[in-house]
TrEMBL record:
Keyword Methyltransferase recorded: yes
InterPro entries: UROD/MetE-like_sf
The keyword Methyltransferase is assigned to this record: yes
Organism: Apiospora rasikravindrae
Protein name per the record: 5-methyltetrahydropteroyltriglutamate-homocysteine methyltransferase
Amino acid sequence: MTPPFRADHVGSLLRPQSLLDARAELASPSKMYSLDVPEAVQRAEAQAVRDVVRQQLERGVRPITDGEYARHIYYGGFFEKLAGFEARPDLPIPDAFRTDFPTTTGLARMGAKTRAAVVCTGKIEYKESPYLAEWLALRDTLPQDLWKEAKITIPTPNYQHIQLKPGTAWTPDSGYTSDQQYFDDLAVCYAAELRTLHAAGLRHIQIDDPHLTYFCSPQFVSGCAKDGTDPDALLDLYIRTHNRLLADKPADLHVGVHLCRGNMAGSTHWVSGSYETIAYKLLRETDYGTYLMEFDDRARSGGSSRCGSCRGGRTWCWGWCRPSGWSSRTAGPWSRRSGRRLRSSRRRRGLVRRRRWSAWR
């Protein structure tokens, strides 16, 4: 499938100071999953979205996104809006999480004692759309002929499960007795969300799954061994879930997946390890149209020799951030992380064709 855009960006943009100030009272980790957002904060979010859309239109940036400005972080507002999930604001580190899990071990080094998560406590059901309101707010800033050039991001279905101590992503009272049952119902909800957003005019969705890169990390893999978890079986479970949510998507809905290794303040990352560890399963066994794969350097990301495994009709993109001739004084949310280039390699008729893409001209 031909990519919808000549270049892409992952859609999470730097928050303007006005939005950071408005959300200051919600910045506490214990409130990260709170659905009680004051009206003043909602107004600040709406204004920030209008401003960043205007900047993208002025600069000719595609796809057009809302910067994820209505969320505290990229995965916010999804799981906690599905029936059957409950936010736990202060789970203890490390006891509530996987052994040697890179994120929580990194947070512990920074002094964190607890971390919030969303746990399944009942039947997982899709009773309302988590992100329809966000899409409608973005859509309302655009003429209808530009709806097809916009994109919304959605966190991966494994986000909560992969970090929590094995067997604790769902409680005994939830009715679930296996991870497969948990993910079967979660995939149904994701498929329903794709259909809802498509029916409202959205044609480009990105699933954010930075945790797939954890399977490239010796620390994560060794932690799985300590917990008695087979990392290969766990990866297979996640890949099956990705494919189940995509199975019945509308034909004209383009869905890609984004992988990275964490980009906290100060360019802090959580893991290192070569993509080649997971390249075959990722590119041959999942059904995404585009694979947006962060690349920093060979030490962190490895090489790309196995990325030629990408199936026909799929596109993978090496993406890295190297601002060139870009003024931080005028770039606004595009500064520091947005002078992005993408290298695309597409297999066609048994041949891999490469071409360098420049996101910003």
